[in-house]
Amino acid sequence: MKYDRDIGLGEALAKQIIDLVAILDWPLDCVTSVPLSNAHLTERGYNQSNLLARPLALVRQIPFLPQALKRTRETRTQVGLSAKERDINVRDAFWANANLIRNKTVVVIDDVTTTGSTLRACASALHAAGALSVYGLTLARAVLQDFSSDSASFAGIV
To answer: CA geometry: angle at 132 spanning 14 and 102, to 5°?
Structure first.
């Protein structure tokens, strides 16, 4: 979906997220997604996380607010970075629109997580803008391929 421009997969894969949120029964007010950098959005032509988030909002009958989060700066690709480098790379890289999310319970959708750095950075921006609660949900989990000394702390996380 992300690299093969197979946007039709988004709706099919979103069903997994929709089913999980139904089981979790989170008290959600709105759905947003991790925003792409301008360069990646221009290159790809779409945000793959939006393809997963929009169907969830439709089924839950709550607003889908892709404009609730924005990138404040371009970041390096996370591929090949250690956990520590990932945290530094996305720290303060997001801004949340307080007018849209203040006093709301928000779920942030991303396609893949490895260390959670991106979702943590998004959650931090949403909380700073006044969100009551923030949940993060991804379609998949990637294993960190990092053999540096700081990766040992993530060895037990599944």
So the answer is: 90
Q: Tell me: the pLDDT tens digits for 109-150?
A: 998 877 788 899 999 999 999 999 999 998 877 666 654 555
pLDDT tens track for 49-100: 999 999 999 999 999 999 999 998 877 676 666 778 776 777 888 999 999 9
Q: What predicted TM-score, i.e. pTM, was given to this entire model?
A: 0.81
Cβ contacts of 49 within 8 Å, gap of 6 or more: 33, 34, 36, 109, 110, 111
- Other beta carbons within 10 angstroms of residue 5's beta carbon come to 12
Q: In whole angstroms, what separates CA 121 from the centre of its chain?
A: 9
DSSP for 39-89 reads: HHHHHHSS-HHHHHHHHHHHHHT--B-GGGEEESS----STT--HHHHHHH
* DSSP-derived secondary structure letter, 144: P
Question: Do residues 136 and 122 make contact, with C-beta atoms less than 8 angstroms apart?
Answer: yes
Does residue 155 register a pLDDT over 50?
A: no
